[in-house]
Design brief:
elongated, 9 helices, 6-stranded mixed β-sheet, 13 strands, alpha/beta, hypothetical protein PF0899 fold
Length: 449
């Protein structure tokens, strides 16, 4: 309803403005003054255009207000919509659909298109959107060319179709599937740094204790020795653990792509490029940082560089090595492992294990289409882990703190883009990563010596 009001008011404003401009252009071309009838018509058209402009602005305000209320209601389960549902239109933070779908529905992008006469940006027209922010999604990653244009089959020209289907090829060969984010604990922060406690070691001395039979107090063990408990004193054993205060600094991950003004007018194409290039690229780099960031500069402290992660050496074969790692997490890490993360090449090695008669141990492809479970635990394939190396752990002990939701911004205010009719579309996110208990993870050597 609100989007329709915005569209109708905008079209009415443009219609009246164009009617007045047509008369003014004709008078200027003929080099004469307005006739009385023309002057009256122009004044009436301008009055109607101003009135429509006011209705357009009010409709946009109503739409944005509704979007905010609906989104709030969906988050708290209010009467406006059931909890978890999403408003159909409006603000950049609306839920529902992919990042690209929400971006092209957002108030920021709708307002940007509203400045394009007839839905197309003129060659000399400025392009500048407000940032539209969204919560990141775990999506299959895809890719795209460095520059999408509106001319030529080698670029985006073949994609600008009369029925607005937009990009048809998802370029899936350029990006890898992303899965690591779904394993770890999801958190949020409103600061640029996150302080948390990391458990370095745990000693559990819990034991049955007999009832006290004496009131005697501990006796001195000498100047250097500890107190000596009296026999029959009923003393309870003390367990210990050591903690480290760690600071995770929020880092910015960002990249951008170039599009022409013609191609950015194609809603379907913009949606596809945001989903298949910008958001996918952010998630791919995020995955690399969570696993192998070295903690220097703007890099996360990744799991591969954190001190205290256990090491599981190659033992006999792949299956034995993986099983011994499960035991190590249980007995030493005092944790319940939730999954393996291994390189796709190593996942293939596991899946192709067979007995002497050529029968696969895992019984063929998994029902889910991914890697088969290993010792009853899910297997996540990720190229963020090097070949010949695997990780097992209680991934609930790793936390990803979102500082800012993913944001998409479009502008021609970059270098000489304005005079070249190009638009920079920027995607960025800010987050921090930390591991609460390194011993809850083990690094597996999957290569025989």
């Amino acid at each position: 309803m609100y989007e329709q009001r915005v569209k109708e008011a905008f079209e009415e404003r443009q219609r009246h403005a164009q009617a007045a401009k047509s008369i003014a252009d004709k008078v200027a071309e003929e080099g004469r003054e307005f006739t009385a009838e023309e002057r009256t018509t122009v004044e009436t058209a301008l009055t109607e255009a101003k009135a429509a402009d006011e209705r357009w602005r009010q409709a946009k305000a109503d739409r944005d207000a509704y979007s905010t209320v609906a989104q709030f209601a969906s988050e708290v389960g209010g009467p406006g919509e059931p909890a978890g549902s999403a408003p159909q239109h409006g603000g950049g933070k609306s839920a529902g659909g992919s990042i690209g779908e929400r971006f092209v529905r957002s108030a920021e992008f709708v307002d940007l298109l509203g400045t394009a006469a007839g839905g197309r940006f003129g060659e000399k027209q400025r392009v500048q959107s407000r940032p539209a922010t969204f919560k990141s999604l775990v999506r299959p990653a895809r890719g795209a060319k460095a520059l999408t244009t509106g001319a030529g089959d080698s670029s985006g020209g073949a994609l600008v179709q009369p029925d607005w289907r937009g990009l048809q090829d998802d370029f899936s060969q350029f990006f890898r599937p992303l899965t690591l984010r779904s394993l770890v604990t999801q958190g949020t922060t409103t600061s640029d740094t996150v302080e948390y406690a990391r458990v370095a070691s745990i000693t559990n001395n819990a034991a049955p204790v007999a009832e006290a039979t004496t009131e005697a107090r501990p006796t001195s063990g000498g100047t250097a020795g500890p107190l000596v408990n009296a026999t029959g004193g009923g003393y309870k054993p003390q367990s210990t653990f050591t903690m480290q205060r760690k600071t995770a600094v929020v880092k910015t991950i960002a990249h951008w792509l170039a599009m022409t003004k013609r191609s950015i007018s194609d809603v379907a194409q913009v949606q596809t490029m945001v989903d298949n290039f910008l958001e996918a690229g952010l998630e791919e780099e995020l995955e690399d940082q969570m696993m192998s960031g070295d903690g220097t500069g703007e890099n996360f402290e990744g799991l591969d560089t954190i001190s205290g992660v256990q090491a599981q050496a190659y033992d006999t074969d792949l299956l034995t090595t993986a099983r011994k790692a499960v035991t190590k997490i249980r007995k030493i890490g005092r944790a319940a492992p939730t999954g393996f993360v291994i390189n796709p090449t190593d996942a293939e090695r596991f899946d192709l294990l067979a007995d002497g008669q050529g029968r696969f141990y895992f019984g063929g492809p998994s029902a889910a289409g991914g890697a088969n479970p290993l010792w009853g635990l899910p297997v996540v394939q990720s190229e963020s882990v090097a070949e010949g190396v695997g990780y097992l752990g209680d991934w609930r002990q790793a936390i990803l703190w979102d500082r800012e939701e993913s944001s998409i911004t479009a502008t021609d205010s970059h270098e000489d883009f304005f005079v070249r009719n190009l638009v920079a579309v920027l995607g960025e996110m800010r987050a921090a990563f930390g591991v609460l208990r390194p011993a809850a993870f083990a690094r597996l050597d999957l290569t025989a010596a």
